[in-house]
Amino acid sequence: MIDFNDANPPASHDLDAERDTIRTELLGRLESVLAALFPAGKKRNGKFLIGDVLGSPGDSLEVVLTGDKTGLWTDRATGDGGDIFTLIAAQLGVNAHADFPRVLEAATELVGRAPTTPARKGKSVPPVDDLGPATAKWDYLDASGKLIAVVYRYDPPGRKKEFRPWDARRRKMAPPDPRPLYNQPGMVSASLVVLVEGEKCAQALIGAGVVATTAMHGANAPVDKTDWSPLTGKAVLIWPDRDKPGWDYATQAAQAILSAGAKSCHILYPPEDAAEGWDAADAAIEGFDIAAFLTHGPRLQMHDIDEEAAPVVSNDESVWGTEDALALSFTRRYHRDWRYVASWGRWLVWDGQRWRTEDTLAATDLIRSVCRHAAVHAENPKIAAKLATSGTVGGVERLARADRRHAATTPPNGTPTRGYSTRPAAWSISPPAGSARTTALTG
């Protein structure tokens, strides 16, 4: 028989002693601890001020730095408050009592990170309290784990969601220059990286065990102001939101990614039955088979427009800057993946599994990229302007349609239909060289 009266009681006194020791160290270097916990905070009249427990800029939350109440905090916007441990717990999003071992671990780490003397801070940043408290935040770290920037999300009542970036180096509410990619430490040893739109989508995939990243501000990110170098040498899959802005951004980002030295870049086609605006975060919530989609989902292969493509055939030469030369430049890169069926008046693209009709003008957009690239490298401004016109783009597309490497015919008595087809491959078009199998042309 077991006598529970003889059982050894839990060693709670050890935890209490550790808590008291860590509390003393936290309060002994409180200003430095708070600066490490909330980089956007500021000191004023013996108090440390920050917008909220997530660390957004502002002054609604204050922490006493001196006197008998050192370490106590109050958030005037929410009425919440407590001691230094409850503040750390609130920042972590956990319960200070139920998850105290985790809180203590974070506090111990903070003591190790915080210097005994706080660093001097520059000019304070303007508060953004008119947006209310931040509802989410994401840290942008470099490959070594050093903080580059923080992005805060706000959901002000009656208004659309808003995002505010904070530059850690300049200590001000502004995006860094250049703008970093998210989750750089996670990308260091990865061979495949998935680019999505926004930190919420990236975190959804990261939570599913996928190495994911996003540019700051998602599809609204300026491609030319983003540092894509962390993707050098990697295979990149772009998962766009299911809408036109998402696809347009994906094609622009793909060219920048390839120019930065990525090994390859493909754009995934979102499921045709998905709702407008459907994204990676929605997929995670719905229990969508993310792994299968990333491995087998239909995709468009992108090619580096900066890389000089070799002639495919011996007579594949023309005069630089002409529509003929631009059409050949497009064909050299995309002759394996694109076909044009004149009787349908449609382009078709190989998505890795099947030929599918392309109704989003993606071929026109790729040709426009070829023309834009030529215009940027033209020495004469008048020639550059002409190369970038819609008339040039249209002329180049018409020539590309007629190239025998793109031209295709319809199936006997065939009528284009939407969606995928599993009909026998009796049509006069075959998959690109190197494809796993012959598949029917679809409409």
Description:
By secondary structure, the chain is α+β, with helices and mostly antiparallel strands. Helices cover 31% and strands 16% of the residues. The chain has 3 domains: 103 residues, DNA Primase, Chain A (Alpha-Beta Complex), CATH 3.90.580.10; 110 residues, Dna Topoisomerase Vi A Subunit, Chain: A, domain 2 (3-Layer(aba) Sandwich), CATH 3.40.1360; 141 residues, no CATH class. It is built from 13 helices and 17 strands. It is elongated.
At a glance:
With 443 residues, the protein is an alpha+beta fold. Helices cover 31% and strands 16% of the residues.
Give helix % range: 25-40%
Spatial strand sequence of the major β-sheet: 1-2-3-4-5
Shape: elongated
Please work out how many helical segments DSSP would assign: 13
Low-confidence stretches: 1-13, 115-119, 121-127, 412-428, 436-443
Mean pLDDT across all amino acids: 82
Q: Report the structural category.
A: alpha+beta
Question: What is the rounded Rg?
Answer: 28 Å
Secondary-structure element series: HHEEEEEHHEEEHEHEEHEHHEHEEEHHHE
Largest sheet: 5 strands, antiparallel
Beta-strand share of residues: 15-25%
Number of domains: 3
Q: Could you give the count of β-strands? A: 17
Distance between the termini: 77 Å
